[in-house]
Amino acid sequence: MSDKNIILVGIMGSGKTTISKLIAQKLNRPLIDMDDYIVAKFQMTIDEMFNINENYFRDKETACCKDMAKLTGHVISTGGGVIKRKENVALLKQNGIIFYLDRPIPLIVEDVETSTRPLIKEGAYKLYRLDEERRQLYLDACDYHIINDSSLEEVTNTIINKIGAR
Ligand code: S3P
User: What is the number of H-type helices and E-type strands within the chain?
Assistant: First the structure.
């Protein structure tokens, strides 16, 4: 099995956090949630960074992608906007296999808490707009496109099987 990092990308609410935890448990690999990593590294909340401006947060995110490029064998759950910079994708790919977790927006709207996420505080419609803006970026970035509309167990196993085949 490849010891490259297993990297999950996708829109917020697509299941990256939950599924990355399951993959890490099953494969007994260390897990990094990049949002948590950014907050710990810079000792600021994501809201505080966005309140300065989005670019401020994106620069911190890029700095963390540089850290990720040095790792092997980790499971890494990224923030939904990481694909906005080509530089980030190149860094993540250096040592990682990228999975685009694609959860149909109506399913995300059913289960996500929209009020606590800075970019979708305005409402669920924002998710549809982000999906439109970013879908092609996710598709361009990924090694595998995984539709997340079945059970967590099934999606987790699909990803693990792809890694196993490499
Ligand atoms: C963002 C998604 C968030 C977080 C930040 C920006 C985005 O992560 O990185 O609020 O641009 O889509 P999640 O996808 O984990 O919610």
Answer: 8, 5
Query: Once rounded to an integer, what is the mean pLDDT over residues 63-79?
Result: 98
32: number of CA atoms within 13 Å, CB side? 22
- Among 75, 76, 78, residue whose Cα is nearest residue 58: 78
Angle in degrees, CA 63, 112, 83, rounded to 5: 30
Q: Which of 1, 3, 6 is nearest to 92 (CA)?
A: 6
Q: What are the pLDDT digits (tens) for 150-160?
A: 999 999 999 99
The answer to whether residue 119 scores a pLDDT higher than 90 is: no
Pocket test for ligand 1, best of 21, 47, 119 (most atoms within 8 A of CB): 119
Q: Is residue 113 pLDDT above 80, yes or no?
A: no
For residues 121 and 50, the model is more confident at: 50
CB distance 156 to 26 below 8 Å: yes
For residue 93, the CA-to-ligand 1 centroid distance in Å is 19
Q: Where would I find the H helices in 53-124?
A: 54-68, 86-94, 105-111
- CA atoms of 134 and 16, how far apart (whole Å): 16
